[in-house]
């Protein structure tokens, strides 16, 4: 007798990378806390990073002194990522060589990105990583199987959980509602603009309009593959949305930081602008980190970006998806709905790594609440926060490099004029409204909140 | 017993297969993330969807 397959349900605890990012991120936070309370220097040494440099001999000294720590750090990353990706279903014969390549290249990126004459002129490590990754993937014969190690989302989600440990939870409480309101205004306007231009003006299929709309309005490709399933989009329409999101996201990684630099904007408002107008977390972090480094205040840009993007946009994806599923079922295809949307989908589509971000933020906020500002700066920052930030930098650089290494322009689907213009009009509306609200209207708010 | 897309030979939601079928998906997202849920591709209708109750095209993956 034929049997029915059950839904994945709680198997996602080991079959979805969001949960692995939580385990890894919180594991690092726990290890750092143990080292902090026992007075062990292990985590500080393990979180080694290439320093800023101008004198090459000092760089050589750094690597000869810390070679063992780099080797140990590499071994730990490799072990944890190998175990988790094996459970997720990746072949280790593909993942391991690919990660070795990624790690070695990451060291090279740090060295280039930390070279002061370059970084002083806007060539920050995230942008260097992206450019070198794009160059390699689009000009050199890198085999496709190496994508196994270039896990953009896994690395950025791990980095976001670690970011939670450096973000005071009170900031989430104070600035979160504003971020949500601002992001929702921009998201709704962007989504409706694209939908109406695509469907009403250009006559494209309404499902396609919806997928393009959420792709620009919420969280890029992740939104497209969530809502696309809810409205039963054509496969081709998902591919075209991926193309448009990818191209515009990469344009924005460079446009927002350099345009903001030209206007000499403060990092907080720019982080908020990136958070409301970039399409994907990974691309947004590349832009926010780059601008923060350009103006010497990475934390302000990253904090505002995170509040706007993760709290303001990402966590509502399940609700957007559910609403579109309802519209599709009750309005677009009354005759052949199949299955009525189930509200539990809101939970199953929730980007779970955000839970890790919240937990890390709450834990560190509680632990550090008993310290005076002077003790925080003298003890907590160097002993507890710095190792977590350094390991976060590694996770981010793995991600930024992976974006470049997996973006092969010739493999992307051709978009066609109508989808291109519908999406592009949405991008213009989104970026303009994001700039007005984040910089002109709420600029002072973001400066104050991110200064705390 | 009610069949769904999960039981259909035309439906594929294996994350590796999805990343192959949708080029560029892994550049800024992932088929291994929570937000995709169990969405997959129906090769019969060439659509991308959440698993629903079996439709008129349904063919059990065992061949039934």
Give structural notes:
The complex is a heterodimer of chains A (452) and B (64). Chain A has helices at residues 12-15, 17-38, 42-46, 56-88, 92-113, 116-119, 125-139, 152-164, 169-201, 206-230, 235-263, 267-277, 281-294, 298-311, 317-332, 344-348, 353-368, 373-406, 417-441, 443-451; one strand at 233-234. With 452 residues, chain A is an all-alpha fold. Chain A is globular and about 70 Å long. Chain A starts with 11 loop residues before the first helix and ends with a helix. The mean pLDDT of chain A is 92. Chain B is α+β, with helices and mostly antiparallel strands. Chain B has one domain (5-49). Helices cover 17% and strands 12% of the residues of chain B. Chain B has 2 helices and 3 strands. Chain B has helices at 15-21, 25-28; strands at 11-12, 40-42, 47-49. In chain B, strand 2 (40-42) and strand 3 (47-49) form a beta hairpin. The longest helix of chain B has 7 residues, at 15-21. The radius of gyration of chain B is 12 Å and the shape is elongated.
């Amino acid at each position: 007798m034929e049997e029915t397959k059950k839904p994945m349900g709680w198997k996602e605890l080991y079959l979805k990378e969001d949960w692995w990012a939580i385990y890894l991120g919180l594991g690092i936070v726990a290890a750092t806390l143990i080292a902090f309370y026992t007075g062990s220097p292990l985590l500080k040494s393990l979180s080694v990073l290439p320093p800023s440099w101008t004198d090459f001999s000092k760089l050589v000294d750094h690597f000869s002194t810390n070679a063992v720590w780099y080797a140990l750090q590499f071994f730990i990353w490799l072990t944890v990522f190998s175990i988790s990706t094996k459970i997720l279903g990746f072949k280790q014969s593909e993942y391991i060589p690919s990660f070795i390549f990624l790690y070695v290249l990451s060291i090279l990126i740090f060295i280039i990105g930390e070279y002061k004459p370059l970084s002083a002129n806007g060539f920050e490590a995230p942008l260097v990583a992206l450019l070198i990754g794009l160059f390699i993937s689009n000009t050199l014969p890198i085999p496709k199987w190496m994508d196994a190690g270039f896990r953009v989302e896994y690395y950025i989600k791990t980095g976001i959980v670690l970011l939670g440990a450096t973000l005071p939870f009170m900031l989430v409480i104070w600035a979160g509602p504003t971020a949500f309101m601002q992001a929702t205004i921009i998201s709704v306007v962007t989504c409706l603009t694209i939908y109406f231009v695509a469907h009403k003006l250009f006559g494209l299929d309404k499902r396609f309009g919806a997928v393009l709309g959420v792709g620009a309005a919420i969280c890029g490709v992740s939104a497209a593959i969530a809502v696309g399933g809810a409205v039963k989009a054509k496969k081709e329409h998902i591919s075209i949305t991926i193309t448009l999101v990818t191209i515009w996201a990469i344009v924005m990684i460079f446009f927002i930081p350099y345009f903001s630099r030209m206007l000499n904007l403060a990092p907080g408002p720019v982080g908020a602008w990136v958070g409301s107008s970039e399409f994907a977390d990974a691309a947004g972090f590349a832009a926010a980190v780059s601008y923060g480094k350009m103006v010497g205040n990475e934390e302000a840009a990253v904090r505002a970006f995170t509040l706007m993007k993760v709290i303001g946009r990402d966590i509502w994806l399940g609700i957007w998806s559910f609403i579109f599923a309802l519209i599709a079922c009750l309005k677009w295809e009354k005759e052949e709905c199949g299955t009525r949307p189930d509200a539990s989908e809101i939970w199953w589509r929730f980007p779970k790594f955000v839970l890790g971000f919240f937990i890390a933020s709450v834990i560190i906020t509680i632990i550090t609440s008993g310290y005076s500002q002077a003790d925080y700066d003298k003890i907590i920052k160097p002993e507890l926060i710095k190792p977590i930030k350094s390991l976060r930098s590694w996770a981010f650089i793995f991600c930024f490099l992976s974006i470049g290494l997996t973006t092969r322009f010739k493999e992307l689907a051709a978009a066609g004029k109508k989808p291109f213009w519908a999406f592009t009009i949405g991008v213009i509306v989104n970026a303009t409204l994001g700039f007005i609200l984040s910089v002109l209207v709420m600029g002072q708010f973001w400066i104050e909140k991110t200064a705390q | 017993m009610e069949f769904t897309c999960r039981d259909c030979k035309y439906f594929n939601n294996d994350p590796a297969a999805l990343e192959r079928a949708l080029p560029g998906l892994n550049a800024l997202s992932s088929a291994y993330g929570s937000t995709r849920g169990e969405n997959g591709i129906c090769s019969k209708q060439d659509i991308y969807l959440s698993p629903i109750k079996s439709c008129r095209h349904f063919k059990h993956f065992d061949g039934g």
